[in-house]
Design a protein that fits this description.
By secondary structure, this protein is of the alpha+beta class. It has 14 helices and 21 strands. It is about 25% helix and about 25% strand. A hairpin with a 3-residue loop joins strand 8 and strand 9.
Length: about 450
Amino acid sequence: MTRQIANWGNYPVMESDVLSFNSVTDLQQLVDSHSQMIPRGNGRCYGDASLAPTTLLTLRLDKILSFDTGAGVFECESGLTLDEVLRVIVPRGWFLPVTPGTKFITVGGAMASNVHGKNHHLDGPFSNHVVEMDVLTSSDGLITCSPDRHPDLFEATAGGMGLTGVITRIKFRLKKIETSYIAQKQVKAGGLEEILQLFDRYHHYTYSVAWIDCIKQGKGFGRSILILGEHAGVSQLDLDKVRSPLHIPSKKGIVFPFNLPSFVLNKFTIRAFNALYYGKNLKKEMDNIVHYEPFFYPLDAILHWNRGYGRKGFVQYQFVVPTDKKEGLIEILNRISRKGMGSFLAVLKKFGTHPSMISFPIEGYTLALDFPVRNGLFEFLDELDKIVLEHGGRIYLSKDARMKPPVFWGAYPRAEEFRTVVNKYNPGYTFRSHLSDRLFITT
């Protein structure tokens, strides 16, 4: 069925022949009968990585294949969402090894983007916990790969944005938990230097992330709230929670009913929001017990929150710069602040080490910001790209919708090796996307 589709940022929008399938056999027939296509899960990447004239929708590949509740190893088809995985594993005392800021992505999408979470500094990205997976390639059909079996295919598929083929099955390890609650600590930082020091001071925490005011200038530049967490034990819960320590809430959520007018999002409303958000914590440090839902997925409680950026959509700009290049982070924040193009949702994290072929994280500081699409935005982001590149950083492909090819090829040192592996398993580039063509990966 041909229709207009977009990913979560609602930019860009393109017409695509969207094809569904119920089995790997059906999928193979579609691949054999079409010359160009890209797999697509739940459409929760932000840019154009899963947009193409022909799209293979994987959501019907949603079966749970096995669950070793003793060892904590879960196996499923790639179209299953993390939300559905959590509803099975949490009541049995297990949790995802790595999770991004939404549970509404598919397991296949988690691998294709090689998602990172608040625990990257200790546990690395999603691929670190994958035992094996099946990938339907255009060269050799279905291939089972792992870090030791067809390792080139495994590594290129981790963060490869669907260009090696269609992931159909994944087996991965889980994290043992006693409860579905998080022991949370929040620490206010008066400025950028302090928040960077706090990341180092609390490095031992499993989970860490910071909200940062990216529009504040002068005193208080870079003021932030560091949010830390550990999985809570039963002994840490109050009596009310102890009765159901592995509780999962219902699927109900507030629905954002319509697209906001573009004039609502401006430097004045952002400045007011940031002041309120920073001021809500009356103490320097706050400790409490919260459910994993608001800790990991605060925005998932607002269905279709992306409508808040208006009909033109938005882009999420996420970059990383090495730890010893923090001046790049400072320069970008200064540019954003002076331009008045701040973001309500500015998230700062510190990555650990993770050598990889094409995955986004490198050891350093990563900042993610949402910008509504408007005149002058892309020219401004081109300026930020230059700063990122000059400081040895890179842009996250899963969030990108407008990066120019030289920025990609200059930022990913193993990009040519990646393209060689893609061409090995995807000769003639049967699997290609708007992103891969735009960045000259498949052209």
